[in-house]
């Protein structure tokens, strides 16, 4: 943790852990302010976890969340009130500290000379030049002056963002590209299912962002506040402006833990866990090892979610451990799915059902988790079966693996790029935006009807790279995305049902059936998941080596990209 002093009464830092609260108290701070919404990052503790620790140490804690980069004047006013009311000195944090400093700077705009605001922020390591322009412009960030300009700007440094940057560089090493992402760490999220079953260590799924940004690509370590597509501009944290000629949008999803009442208060304890968070996946494995009897619940929220098979993967691997250790007869395994089917592509269901029967797992469809009481070991589900009156049921558990509801990030949902449902609106074949011809999107945040998986991003990145380069050169060729997605369903330790499919559930196997029949559990598919896919991810996909992902090109007759 790095504490940065802004004034005598306020210091800030990037995201803190629960353990850091002890150090904050020892440093003499009397209050903590959280300016980061819960669920923004995959490794982020909830505010309730921070608040619980703060209270135990005699500190006050206040939750003033601000959408990534989107600091409103009203937010600054609330921050000013909090600074007046809370015991001092105050410690504030967000993902990087920028939102907290921005709130302070805007709250001081009417009473403190701008040079003094800029100097204090600079001393703490933050550039508030954009905030100064906003203050001078009556509260609105002007986009006529850019802090940076690049030919191609990529929003998001996850699997999709780094892969498409590498694919672009592989096609034209002279391109001026920038990736915008505030995260210090990049995660191989497909590995978290394996962490939750004791097969991978968590640390093997994480690497520093700086080590993965392709050589020659600029890394702008910031969050996006807003899009100004009519002005070819992106507004960042601190009200900075980045201009582009072409924009690629792929920031990933938001995990909405708050939509389940009581969940954020009990995550990581009381038998409540989730493989959808880096720091919780190891807890899943500890729970699986420690569960000897009682009910084990595994939930799946309404679609869309990233890796739709992950909720049941956790169930299969947990039940397999109990099966192998002779405990399964004493454990009641239950799968609660908000949807109406076990898996969206029917061809794979028979193989999955054989494991449901093997583990004596109960299937509860149209059951959506709405509340959890970890201390009482109880969960509540809203049941909405077709043709029946909705009802709420209560059930007890010894352990519960929760998959949170998921949405597009707030700054996407409220932007001009989004469709009515809040997803980036693209052509499902070319992945080009339907209204803005110099914008493309890939990964989990766009609205093409495909599975939201890293395997999908692996196929999408070359398509977008090919189409962007074709657009730059003015050629008539276009690469087409067929909706490919892959879900290696880990049905037992050592075997996988390798689901590969495209738009409309069409099967798109990568291997001949004599080698891997995706509709049957396979030892070879397990070896692919455990030993082959991680190095392919780190050493091929993220480096622009398009193994089994070369895009199909289609020449558009009589038409060239504008």
UniProtKB/TrEMBL annotation:
Q: Which InterPro entries match?
A: BLH_phosphatase-like, FAD/NAD-bd_sf, FAD/NAD-binding_dom, Prot-tyrosine_phosphatase-like, Sulphide_quinone_reductase
Q: Which residues form the FAD/NAD(P)-binding domain?
A: 150-270
The cofactor named in the record is: FAD
Q: Name one GO molecular function term.
A: hydrolase activity
Pfam family example for this protein? Answer: BLH_phosphatase
- Record keywords, A-Z: FAD, Flavoprotein, Oxidoreductase, Quinone, Transit peptide
Query: Superkingdom of the source?
Result: Bacteria
| GO biological process terms held by the UniProt record | sulfide oxidation, using sulfide:quinone oxidoreductase
Q: Any idea where the Beta-lactamase hydrolase-like protein phosphatase-like domain is?
A: 3-109
Q: Which PANTHER family does the record match to this protein? A: SULFIDE:QUINONE OXIDOREDUCTASE, SULFIDE:QUINONE OXIDOREDUCTASE, MITOCHONDRIAL
Q: What is this protein called?
A: TIGR01244 family phosphatase
Q: What is the lineage of its organism?
A: Bacteria, Pseudomonadati, Pseudomonadota, Alphaproteobacteria, Hyphomicrobiales
């Amino acid at each position: 943790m790095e504490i940065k002093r802004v004034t005598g009464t306020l210091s800030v830092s990037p995201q803190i852990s629960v353990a850091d609260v002890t150090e904050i108290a020892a440093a003499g701070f009397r209050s903590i302010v959280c300016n980061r919404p819960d669920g923004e990052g995959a490794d982020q503790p909830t505010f309730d976890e921070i608040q619980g620790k703060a209270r135990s140490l005699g500190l006050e804690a206040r939750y003033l969340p601000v959408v990534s980069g989107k600091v409103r004047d009203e937010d600054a006013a609330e921050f000013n009130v909090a600074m007046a009311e809370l015991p001092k000195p105050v410690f504030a944090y967000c993902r990087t500290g920028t939102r907290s400093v921005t709130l302070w700077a805007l709250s001081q705009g009417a009473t403190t000379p701008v040079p003094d605001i800029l100097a204090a922020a600079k001393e703490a390591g933050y550039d508030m030049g954009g905030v100064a322009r906003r203050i001078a412009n009556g509260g609105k960030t002007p986009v006529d002056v850019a802090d940076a300009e690049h030919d191609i700007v990529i929003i998001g440094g996850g699997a999709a963002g780094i892969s498409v940057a590498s694919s672009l560089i592989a096609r034209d090493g002279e391109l001026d590209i920038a990736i915008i992402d505030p995260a210090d760490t990049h995660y191989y999220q497909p590995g978290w299912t394996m962490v939750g079953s004791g097969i991978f260590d968590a640390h093997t799924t994480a690497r520093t962002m700086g080590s993965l940004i392709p050589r020659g690509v600029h890394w702008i370590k910031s969050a996006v506040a807003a899009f100004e597509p009519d002005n070819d501009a992106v507004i960042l944290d601190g009200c900075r402006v980045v201009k582009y000629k072409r924009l690629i949008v792929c920031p990933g999803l938001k995990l909405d833990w708050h939509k389940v009442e009581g969940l954020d208060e009990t995550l990581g304890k009381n038998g409540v866990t989730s493989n959808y968070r880096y720091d919780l996946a190891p807890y899943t494995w500890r729970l699986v090892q420690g569960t000897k009897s009682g009910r084990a619940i595994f939930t799946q929220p309404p679609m869309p979610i990233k890796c739709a098979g992950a909720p049941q993967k956790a169930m299969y691997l947990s039940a397999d451990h109990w099966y192998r250790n002779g405990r399964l007869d004493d454990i009641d395994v239950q799968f609660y799915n908000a949807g109406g089917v076990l898996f969206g592509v029917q061809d794979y269901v028979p193989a999955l059902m054989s494991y449901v029967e093997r583990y004596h797992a109960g299937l509860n469809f149209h059951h959506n988790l709405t509340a959890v009481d970890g201390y009482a070991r109880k969960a509540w589900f809203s049941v909405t079966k077709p043709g029946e009156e909705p009802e709420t049921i209560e059930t007890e558990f010894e352990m519960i693996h929760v998959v949170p509801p998921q949405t597009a990030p707030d700054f996407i949902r409220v932007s001009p790029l989004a469709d009515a449902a809040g997803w980036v609106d693209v052509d499902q074949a070319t992945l080009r935006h339907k209204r803005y011809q110099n914008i493309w999107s890939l990964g989990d945040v766009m609205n093409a009807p495909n599975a939201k998986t890293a395997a999908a991003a692996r196929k999408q990145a070359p398509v977008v790279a090919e189409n962007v380069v074709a657009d730059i050169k003015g050629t008539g060729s276009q690469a087409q995305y067929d909706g490919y997605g892959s879900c290696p369903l880990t049905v037992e330790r050592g075997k996988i049902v390798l689901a590969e499919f495209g738009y409309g559930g069409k099967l798109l196997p990568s291997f001949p059936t004599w080698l891997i029949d995706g509709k049957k559990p396979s030892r070879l598919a397990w070896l692919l998941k455990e030993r082959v896919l991680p190095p392919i991810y780190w050493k091929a996909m993220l480096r622009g080596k398009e193994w089994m992902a070369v895009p199909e090109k289609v020449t558009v007759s009589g038409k060239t990209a504008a």
